[in-house]
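Here's what a typical entry looks like (Nucleoside triphosphate pyrophosphohydrolase):
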Amino acid sequence: MTENTLINNSEAGIERLLEIMRRLRDPAHGCPWDIEQDFASIAPYTIEEAYEVADAIEREAWDELKGELGDLLFQSVFHAQMASEAGHFAFQDVVRTMSDKMVARHPHVFGDESRDKSAEQQTLDWEAIKAAERAGKAQKGALDGVAANLPALLRAHKLQQRAARVGFDWPDASHVLAKITEEATELEEARDARDADALEDEFGDLLFVMVNLGRHLGIEPEAALRRTNAKFTRRFAAVEERLAQRGRTPSESDLAEMDALWDEVKQQEKQAAKRSA
């Protein structure tokens, strides 16, 4: 078998990818860029690839999703290769750990427990198992184990979920709405006082409560904000297109004109949605 037999075998699956990664990191013959990377330098790419997977799913770009999932898989392979070089663990240890975890967390599939339960009950069971796992890792607090470097909205959502499971939660969304009004008032007071530090603090409080409202309404905040970002991008592009038809750019227009065009775009989208319903 020549050195490149596995590399050139398109049917070799994960073993081919592992060998490609090993060769890329080879100190004598690998890629200089790949060789000089470490966990910290690669981590931002890992996060970026995860978001690109989410973006492809949101756009239902299934042809793109295959490639994005591959990019994300490669990040796992990259980290595992660096870990293997440092003597921490190998890729097969990653696979074994995840497989063991999934088997342990699904006793109703792989064990003796009954499958006769709702998805909601399974979620509760899942969290109970995870709580037992955290206890085994000496994580005593209810919020222990929520990664500090998660995106802020996602981390807020997870922190609130954890707190709610031990009873620290409002009974319904109406109480959260009242809290939003309270936090908005405090934000105004900080603005009027021209206290920059307090203003940032109160703005954060308002965002945190908005995340809590979403949780009570069954809305995932990251997904909701991504949807709104996409909507804003789409509508603003349509405004730019209409301005271009008039021979102008946004900088050559004014707020009144752009706002009127925005309303036109918004109304057209609503009418199109009604026709397709």
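The chain has a mean pLDDT of 91.

More examples are in the samples folder.
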